[in-house]
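Support reply, case 0932

Customer input (verbatim):
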Amino acid sequence: MIRRNYFLAFCLAPIAFFPADAQVEQFEGKPIIDIQYSFQSLAPEDLAKAQPMRKGQPLRAADVAHAIDGLFATGRFADIAAEAEPSGNGVIVRFVTQPQWFVGGVNAEGKVSYPPNRGELASNGQFTLGGPFRQEDVDNAVKSMSRLLQANGFYENTVTPSIERSPEGQQVFIRFQIHEGKRAKYTTPVINGNKLLSDAVIIRATKWRIPIIHWWRQVTDALTRSGVQGLQNKYQSKGRLAAKVDLTGLDYNSATRRVTPHLNVDPGPVVKVEAVEAKISRRKLKRYVPVFQERAVDNDLLVQGQRNLEDYFQSQGYYDVGVDFRIEHPDPNTETIQYVISRGQRYKVVRVDIVGNKYFTSDMIRERMFIAPTAFNLRHGRYSEAFRKKDEANIAELYKANGFRDVVVRISAEKAYKGKTGDVAVAVNITEGPQWTVDTLTVEGVEKLNRDVVISQTTSVAGQPFADVNLASDKNSVLTYYYENGFPSATFKAGWRNASRPNHVEVLYTISEGDQQFVRDVITSGVHITRPSLLRREITMKRADPLSPVQQTNVQQSLYNLGIFARVDTAIQNPDGDTDHKYVLYNFQEANRYALNVGIGAMVAKFGTPNTSTLSGAAGVTGFSPEISADISRLNFLGLGHSVSLRGAYSTIDKMAAITYTQPRFRNSAGRTLTYTLLYNDQLNIRTFSSITESASVQLSQKFSKSLTGMFRLEYRRVSVNNVIIPVLLIPQFVQPVRLGIVASNLVWDRRNNPSNPSRGMYNTVDIALADRYLGSQRNFGRALIRNATYYKLTGQWILARQTGFGIIEPFNAPAGLTEQQSVPLPERFFGGGADSLRAFPYNQAGPRDVGSALVAGGPASRPTGFPLGGNATFFNNVELRFPLLGENIQGVLFHDMGNVFSSLSDMSLRFSQKNLQDFNYTVHAAGFGIRYRTPVGPVRVDLAYSINPPKFLGFSGTPAQLLSCNPNLPESQLPSYCQSTQQSVGHFQFFFSIGQTF
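Our regenerated output:
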């Protein structure tokens, strides 16, 4: 204000012509010929609002002062001076202004080794996007970044700032060039205080030195803090719950690049927490007494533990429990906390009655209650004083939210119900009182928005129940609607009064809209690769739109969803400035364009790869298959937001390579993705043959909702078989490559709470495909596969999961020389069995098997080999009971699998038993036990299954060549041993090791 008054006093005189004391006297009242600005960045509407002086008006000193105040209030000027000079019979007023600059973006450049990352460094500068820029903030940011680098071991760092100013929006972009130097390492810490532990134990607890080889680790802020916490945990593991370890300093030696931590240790006494007069496990004491979690001992925590123990015992049926605590010091180095627990008699809730309720049913009220009678999973029911208070409050709130302002809820317990000691009957007595109703709703102050739309946001309308919670809800809804339409200063006041009728009210809402703000423009920065057209497509906020923070955030989320930005910052520039038209800023940090993922895994189970040298092991052999996979992706290809990825996997049973081009938001539709794929896959995971698939496909997927996704796919592929074991498959029609033209559609409905380890929800898939000669296919068939899985939380961590699958392949127009069943190429048939389908079988061992058939005309008859052939129908059902086993990370599973792969739909049967050695069209059952170990990438799974009714079949132990040499005209007894069939079977016990839940 002093500076503004200064300019008003000394700048109104004509320049270089009149002394200061003659200014007002010289120009006061003269008409304004023109108003000029040395710099002017306001929108015309904001300028007219901030500076009310107009051409032709007489010049008044007060008007000039108001104009300067108004221009300053916009926040877009750092300095303002007013000058005046005569022009004819009037005066020209000139405002000499200096622009206020605003932060447009902050970047950390140069080599930055994690930790910290560039984002942490930029954020550490404490700049606010869109906020005023001050030079002193740069100096403070340099110091702050340097401290962060030092905390992570870079003591020889340099941070060099540079500033770039952009006239668009008066923005300043600050870049910090980072030279980090070399990271320092720890050395032996200096320990002060009564440490009690040896130096070797202390160093092991900090983990600042690598065990065995004794190399000191590199310094990071996280490792420093975790080392201090690790040492404190070490003391606390010895029972010293009040132990304190403070880091008092880090001394850096530039000659050796070593950091010496200085620690101050106060081990405190050994704290023992005991329960007397009642047994309670150590694990439950740690759970309910918060001194273990807070790692401190004070009276508040001990009282909280007392209440927690009371609630626990009451929930176990000891409703009269009494808990007290006492602190003893048997010696100076020991502190004993004893919780004295008087459990009293144990009760069980045998009855819960709800009386007095008319408006709500008893079932609706029970759903909101913690108190419950005995049930399958509640041996003694559930009751406690804490539950009683909660239930009374919950039921009362339910009634009050529906207009029963005078409701009274009282819950009482009758012990020795019907004279039986230990039985408790709980009575919920509800006095509803009258229901209050809204007679009229009056809304005042709506001028700039549609009145009907504003009223539609409310629930307290005529004829509806009246409740205070509805008034609060209406306030949130109406203000949110105003904020969405650019009214950031809108206010809402709710009031009511009694109507002429009893228990009826008149509601009055008074709205003060304030000024509406608009988007002056949207300014983007920080992009180098991404095309502007992509940003324009995603940023739906346009010039002159109402300034909606909700829409602004939605656009930010949409930009993140593209997957091409590591960071998207958005802000309103100059938010506190007195202007109605504001810039919306989006500052981007583009993600790394290349991403490489490498995975190593292995499978241990009974499976089989083709072996043309022998016919033994038709039911599979136990094997070990290591696997390595790699995925390299090029993000934001050509700056369009598209991606190109090359994927590959190699193992003893599978070799795969694929190139995928993904085009998200196809035709500018959210959730619509177009994908082009080239695939080569060489599979050796079926004992009977190996298969090679070469395919090209285009797929259009559409996300209809958060849980529902549809896909449409057109695919051409060439499938061929190699390493054929069964002689009958040497028929050329069976082994020659086949071209398939397929059109397919998929529907996925996923409502699981956690796809990697679900505990509730459902998962449904439908896959329908058609291969037809009109699509260029050499085989004609239709295929459908449907799966449904559901997950139910029984109680606590007990989960019931089930899955059912059904599939069918229907061939038609078979080529000459093949039946319709034979016309389906072997790799296209259903194969089942293994850890993810039917654990009654080894991998791909379910379904029909070779039972012998004729070879080429005139040749000898083929004898049965028992090798799997796949089928044209499948059915399976899996049920799992998942429960906690050991700690929080190990889960147990009891499961039952049933199903099979069938020759055709007409052959599908739920029969339990096998008719003969040629019958495989029956349902096989398995039961078993599994263990799941929780990891960040999903549960590691081990399953042991017992197959109750595995199939038996005839097989051979010789070679395919020996089998072909067998004379079919000789009786079985005269044939060589390798020509004689032997009975074989799938084993009863199956073992599987993998990652991820079964379903």
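We compared this against your earlier run and they match. Two observations from our side: Residues 110 and 178 are 5 Å apart (CA to CA). Confidence is low (pLDDT under 50) at residues 1-24, 854-861. Please reopen the case if you see a mismatch on your end.
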